[in-house]
Amino acid sequence: MAVNAFSDEWAVRFKDEVNKSSVYKAAAKGWKWTVGLVIEAEPDKNVPESVGVVMDLFDGEARDIHVGPASEAQSCQFVITAPYTRWKQVATKELDATKGMLQGKLKLKGDLPTIVRYTKASQELTECTTRVPVQWPDER
Amino acid sequence: MHDAGPGPMARRKVKTSKPVTYADAEPSAFASMLGGLIEANVESRPERKKDFDSLAARVGIWVTDIDEGVTLVFERGALLVHNGLEPKRDITIRAEADTVMNLSNLKIGLFGMPVYYDEVGRGVAWKLLQGKMRIEGLVGNLATLNTVTRIFSVAS
Questions:
Q1: A127: in domain
Q2: In a domain, B9, yes or no
Q3: CATH for B64
Q4: CA A101, CA A95: separation in Å to the nearest integer?
Q5: CA distance B37 to B16
Q6: How many CB atoms neighbour CB B14 within 10 A?
Q7: Does residue B92 belong to any structural domain of this protein?
Q8: Which chain B residues touch A96 with a CB distance below 8 Å?
Q9: Which residues, in sequence order, are CB contacts of A135 under 8 Å at separation 6+?
Q10: CA distance B48 to B53
């Protein structure tokens, strides 16, 4: 059953998908930093306020993923920021996250060598988001 | 009256201790990312710094699936990053975004040679064999390519 994108239910399903992924488990071995995703508001798309997704990822496991204020996501060690429409493109595989970062469509903050070392893990995290059926706010 | 405006000052070359600088007033996202990656790598790893300080070369990188590229001008301890491909390049690497990122994940083995026999290395070599990664100017510049690969490499 589809859940609302970037809702508490979505965060639970996303976390389950991450923890089910053997690819992520192997690729993220040694990862020990928090990751924040900032979904910037687009009022005309039914996203009136920016939202944060806070991920406590440790050694191939998602210990916690929750939705909160954008400011909480911004305080994570790695932060990826983009408007809502871009995130929707990533989650629907219209936009590859790696290409998006190289093009500046997704803005990354954090230690670059570390994130590059874990490219495969971040690609699999993106894959996990695509496995959660969602209802998008602009399609409601 | 003396004009204290910023005009001529803005064009003056300022000596800076930063190892990586940008030729364009607005570096592209790719230029910033690659420059940032090299800067962090060089500053945190003495063996990369040694390579960085010895390298003088003009290296182009073109990402084929986003139609963007950079030219990296290494000048023994300094790097100037240009948006796009500039003339007189010694080496030009053309590959998809994923492959460019994987170049940074190549491990460095014995005698400072990139490792092409592990999973990442085989993936890069396969792209080369398939023609999905092309390296122009390789003849005569193999040592330069290996040095650039080491400077890029974030693999431990």
A1: yes
A2: no
A3: 3.30.1050.10
A4: 10
A5: 19
A6: 6
A7: yes
A8: 97
A9: A2, A3, A4, A5
A10: 9
Interface pTM, i.e. ipTM: 0.80
Strand A61-69 vs strand A51-58: parallel, antiparallel, or unpaired?
antiparallel
The DSSP secondary-structure symbol of A140 reads -
Split into its structural domains, chain B has a count of: 1
**pLDDT by residue (tens digit) across A33-69?**
999 999 999 999 999 999 999 999 999 999 999 999 9
- pTM over 0.95? The answer is no
Q: Which CATH number belongs to the domain containing residue A45 in this structure? A: 3.30.1050.10
Would you say residue B46 lies in a domain? yes
* Test the B interface: residue of A29, A94, A108, A112 with most B CBs within 10 Å: A112
Determine, yes or no, domain membership for A140. Answer: no
Q: Which residues in chain A are closer than 8 Å to B33, comparing Cβ atoms? A: 101-102, 108, 112
Residue-number span of the structural domain to which A116 is assigned: 3-131
Q: Domain limits at B79?
A: 18-152
Nearest-angstrom CA–CA distance, B34 and B72: 9
